[in-house]
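Researcher: Next sequence.
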Amino acid sequence: METLEPVLAAHPFLQGLDPRHLKIIGECASKVNFSAGEFLFREQDEATNFYLINHGRVAVEIFRARRGPVNVQTLREGEAVGWLWFGKPYHWHFDARAVQLTRALALDVKSLMQRCDQDPQLGYELMKRYAHMLAVQFRVAILQLGDMYG
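Model: Next structure:
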């Protein structure tokens, strides 16, 4: 049986995580592939997975009635997509679509949250990484707004 722990350990989002925690996360992970144009998830869908991109590109989009899909950001290898899954009711607030063939690790949100509840140290480690990711996303949004309105 193939273990995903080495792949998880190599991903920037999880680098430096305790091997014991990588094993737990590996129990919640599976390999997934998305063809170009295929949605990883859609706005308002239940957030069932959090994705660590290993190859490819993913467009984060919001839909506007007058303009259609608006690309907010493009994520690449080494990045994570699905950063709003920590907050209940666990529904997406945007769309994510593969721009090209994308290979990722899908982490089951409910299973991962249960394990974080059982192991507060794991939850804390993931929350630190999640907070860092949100801070980066916030800085990116500020720069984009400056470009749009500056």
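Model: The mean pLDDT is 89. Strands lie at 29-34, 39-41, 49-55, 57-64, 68-76, 80-81, 95-98, 102-108.
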